[in-house]
Amino acid sequence: MIGEIIIDPPLATYLSSARLGDLRRINYIFGANGTGKTTISRVIAAEQGHEHCQLVWRGGSELERMVYNRDFVDRNFNQDGPLPGVFTLGENQVEAEREIARLRPEIDRVNDQISSLKMQLDGEDGQSGKRKELLDLEPVLGDKCWKQVELHKAYFREAFSSAGVLGSKQRFKEKVLSEHASNTAEILSLDELKQKAQTVFSNELERAVPLETLSATDLVSVEGSALLQKVIVGNQDVNIAALINRLGNSDWVKQGRQYHEQEPEICPFCQQSTDKQFADDITAFFSEAYDNDVQSLRQLQVSYKGESERLLATIQRCVEAQNPFLKQDLFNAEAQALTERLKRNLAILNKKIDEPSRKVELESIDPLVAQLQSLLVEANEATNEHNQMVANIAVEKRTLIGQVWRYVLNELSDDLQQYHQSKDRLERTIEGMEQSLREKNVLLRGLKDQVKELEKQTTSIQPTIAAINDLLQKFGFTSFSIGEADEGRHYRIIRANGEDASRSLSEGEKTFITFLYFYYLIKGAQSPSGITANRVVVFDDPISSLDSDILYIVSSLIKGVMEEVRSQSSQIKQIFVLTHNVYFHKEISYNRSRPADKALSEESFWLVKKLQQGSVVERCITNPIRSAYELLWEDVKAENISSVSLQNTLRRILENYFTMWGGMGKDEICALFGGRDKLICQSLFSWVNDGSHSIHDDLYINHGEQTNEAYLRVFHSVFEKARQLGHYNMMMGVANEDGSHQAELAVNLEVTL
Question: Are both 225 and 365 inside the same structural domain?
Answer without folding.
Answer: yes
